[in-house]
Amino acid sequence: VKNQFRNFPMVPRVVFGRGCFDQLGDILISRRQHSDAPFIFLVDDVFEGTELVQRIPRIFNDQLIFISADREPRTAQVDALVKKIQNDFDDVPSGIVGIGGGTLLDLSKAVAIMLTNTGRADEYQGWDLVNKPSLYHAGIPTISGTGAEVSRTTVLLGPDKKLGINSDYTTFDQVVLDPDLTQGVCKSQWFYTGMDCFIHCIESLKGTYLNAFSQSYGEKALELCKEVFLEELEPAESRDKLMMASWHGGMSIAYSQVGVAHAMSYGLGFLLGVRHGIGNCLVFQHLEEFYPEGVALFDKMRQKHHIELPTGICANLDDNEFDTMISVAMGMVPLWENALGKDWRKVITSEKLEAIYRKI
Ligand code: NAD
Ligand code: ZN
Questions:
Q1: Taking all residues of the chain, what is their mean pLDDT, rounded to a whole number?
Q2: d(CA 236, CA 247)
Q3: Minimal-distance CA residue to ligand 1 atom 39
Q4: What is the pLDDT of residues 268-309, one digit of tens each?
Q5: Which of 182, 198, 233 finishes a domain?
Q6: For burial by CB atoms within 10 Å, which of 87, 99, 152, 325 has the most?
Q7: Are both 154 and 203 inside the same structural domain?
Q8: CA torsion, points 344, 350, 351, 356, in degrees to nearest 10?
Q9: Per-run averaged pLDDT (10 residues), the chain, 360 residues
């Protein structure tokens, strides 16, 4: 078969180290088109009024937009941001800089794509639907785990689906990995987003798509997760390692896929707005049938850090609502194929998924 091997982009530039955020100004200088072409900084509003904002290298008519991460990114939100930026400036911006967790990173990727492509963001949800290169965009994670800093997707909630814009133009042009930026994250969120990385590793390493490329990154990420969540590390060392775990976990799924927890978590996210990290944990705890060792490790980590997962999330749902979640989950065909092979439909039935959802 011609071109049976996928030819993936990687992040071409990355800077790593405690305090490296302060190099951002120098990094952006060479990317400034001219003084009327601003940089747009999309920043998690949790940083409003903090010293980090003072350190953002704004010059000329650069714009800073605070965005709440209380809800996961939506296609309509991307469209509105693009419209605002186009209205505010006569010139095309020099680029987009996203500062925050997976929510802000994904929004920034999507805005950079939609500033150079016509139409609405929801028209591009899927695989390889983007025609034109996106605007220059840089990503600066402030919480570790999603791997959104390395991936070629931006996951958006659309009018009728939760699905990524997967394309060669989605990947960041520059990533700034400064572990110090993750210092303010609260314990529960640290755990949920960190477990996203752990689950990426398990789903990739236990999947049928596994290959030496994915395995090499997945094993390293898993080893780092175990150190971070099961050993006693200095806080700064722990932050360094979780940031690199996230990176490797993201690289691992680039050349494979995620699996059962992600497919089912997408259902929870679509129907109930349950966010990615916690949604994965809520599902994963009940997946001992598929990932026995992974679930045992997860329980150990959860207990060590005294994390109590909420219960009763699906207690009051009606049949239609279960059907919606199940059909969103079952729609994630590549994820099921990776998890269970081509014959996955013999194992996964609506009844089976409903029984798992009912435990949540
Ligand atoms: P998030 O971005 O939603 O942030 C979680 C919470 O942590 C928010 O309340 C945020 O304000 C807060 N926060 C972030 N940094 C902080 C800091 N330094 N100090 C204090 N609070 C901070 O969480 P996330 O788990 O990183 O991202 C989830 C999103 O990532 C979902 O939308 C999911 O779909 C997406 N995702 C994308 C990919 C991808 O490859 N593109 C992969 C996995 C997940
Ligand atoms: Zn994930």
A1: 97
A2: 17
A3: 148
A4: 999 999 999 999 999 999 999 999 999 999 999 999 999 999
A5: 182
A6: 99
A7: no
A8: 80
A9: 84 98 98 95 98 97 97 97 97 98 98 98 95 98 98 93 93 98 98 98 97 97 98 98 98 94 95 96 98 98 98 96 96 96 97 97
Give the model's pLDDT for residue 6: 86
CA 93 to chain centre: 25
Q: Is 147 in the pocket of ligand 1 (CB under 6 A)?
A: yes
Residue 240 sits in a domain of what CATH number? Answer: 1.20.1090.10
* Helix/strand/coil percentages in the chain, nearest 5: 50, 10, 40
Q: Domain boundary residue among 147, 182, 217?
A: 182
> Are the CB atoms for 272 and 252 separated by under 8 Å?
no
Whole-angstrom Cα distance, residue 298 to residue 305?
A: 11
Identify the domain containing residue 53 by its residue range. Answer: 14-182
Terminal Cα-to-Cα distance of the chain (whole angstroms): 43
Atom of ligand 1 nearest to the CA of 151: 40
Q: CB of 263 within 8 A of CB of 336? A: yes
Nearest partner of 62 among 101, 83, 33, judged by Cα: 33
DSSP string, 42-86: EEEGGGTTSHHHHTS---TT-EEEEE--SS--BHHHHHHHHHHHH
Q: Are residues 196 and 171 in the same domain?
A: no
- Residues 198, 177 share a domain: no
Taking the CA of residue 154 as reference, the ligand 1 atom at the shortest distance is 41
Q: How far is CA 56 from CA 62, 174, 246, 324, in A?
A: 10, 16, 24, 42
164 in the same domain as 40: yes
For residue 300, give both structure tokens: 């150990």
Q: How far is the CA of 133 from the centre of ligand 1 (A)?
A: 25
Q: Encode pLDDT of 339-352 as tens digits.
A: 999 999 999 999 99
Instruction: Name the closest ligand to CA 70.
Output: 1
Q: Measuring CA to CA, which residue among 222, 343, 329, 348 is closest to residue 289?
A: 348
Residue 316 maps to a domain: yes
Q: Among the bound ligands, name the one nearest to the CA of residue 196.
A: 2
Q: For residues 21 and 176, is the Cβ–Cβ distance under 8 A?
A: yes
DSSP letter at 273 equals: -
